[in-house]
Design brief:
Layout: H1 3-10, H2 22-33, E1 38-41, H3 46-58, E2 63-67, H4 74-87, E3 91-94, H5 98-108, H6 117-136, E4 141-143, E5 160-163, E6 169-172, H7 180-189, H8 241-249
Parallel strand pairs: 1-2, 1-4, 2-3, 4-6
Antiparallel strand pairs: 5-6
Bound molecules: iron/sulfur cluster.
Length: about 250
């Protein structure tokens, strides 16, 4: 896609989405791009469930995809099934390239991520970032559950922006200014399904070997890649690997 065609798509989207609530942001993005060219990227955290609920009120059976890294907790697969039934959606599941996984684990072992940040980022690249690129090649915009209070790396997340990393498509973060409490209020008020591990002390959930429960009062993302320094704790889906490597060396 050229910059010119991407900017043409910009027109129907509010130029100042910051003042819009989540439903209005999603409605504007759907109106601008259409149901088939806008997709929710879901790891099935509570934010993704809220967004799917809001999207489903505007558009029946919105597109939603997930990245099955092959290392997810079984509770995530159970939730995917519950979500499929609850919202009557077809979850598009993207898996890593089998030969890339085989080459990586042959060279570095199955649990390479504990060895170094380089190896951890390599695993995230093969199992998450590369499949994400394939998924996003099918759309003109993606919706994420990013919230500004989740991490310093997310503190300036705009509600709608152009994503230069993935070929000038739209990136939509309708819950950017929501608090965690607001997210859970919406889940409970609407009796929506959520991840079973949240009831066992897990606040942010990714792959099983890279996620642990956190203590009450601890940073919600402290359970992700807990053996690393806080500034590198992203998988590369929203922050480029080059930036994470730079942060880890400071
Ligand atoms: S979160 Fe852990 S297991 Fe999952 S892709 Fe990243 S390094 Fe690999």
């Amino acid at each position: 896609m050229t910059a010119r065609s991407a900017i043409r798509r910009l027109r129907p989207v509010p130029s100042d989405a910051e003042g819009y609530d989540a439903e209005t942001v999603l409605a504007a993005a759907l109106r601008a791009l259409g149901r088939d060219r806008l997709v929710l990227s879901a790891s099935f955290g509570p934010e993704d469930i809220v967004i799917l609920d809001l999207l489903s009120r505007i558009e029946a059976r919105p597109r939603v995809f997930t990245l099955d890294t092959g290392r997810l907790p079984n509770e995530t697969y159970e939730l995917i099934e519950r979500v499929r039934r609850h919202f009557d959606v077809a979850v598009e599941v993207y898996v890593p390239d089998a030969s890339a996984v085989e080459a990586m684990v042959r060279a570095k072992g199955v649990n390479l991520f504990y060895a170094s940040i380089e190896d951890r980022l390599r695993c995230c690249e093969v199992r998450k970032v590369a499949p994400l690129r394939r998924a996003l090649a099918t759309v003109d915009g993606w919706v994420t559950g990013l919230r500004r209070e989740q991490a310093p790396t997310r503190a300036r997340t705009p509600k709608i922006s152009l994503d230069l990393e993935h070929g000038l498509i739209w990136k939509v973060a309708p819950l950017a200014d929501w608090t965690e409490a607001q997210v859970w209020e919406h889940i409970r008020a609407n009796d929506l399904p959520y991840h079973a591990l949240h009831d066992r002390g897990y606040r942010s959930i990714g792959c099983a070997p890279c996620t642990r429960a956190v203590d009450p009062g601890e940073d919600p993302r402290a359970g992700r890649w807990w053996w690393e320094a806080p500034e590198s704790r992203e998988c590369g889906l929203h922050v480029r690997h080059a930036e994470l490597r730079k942060e880890s060396k400071r």
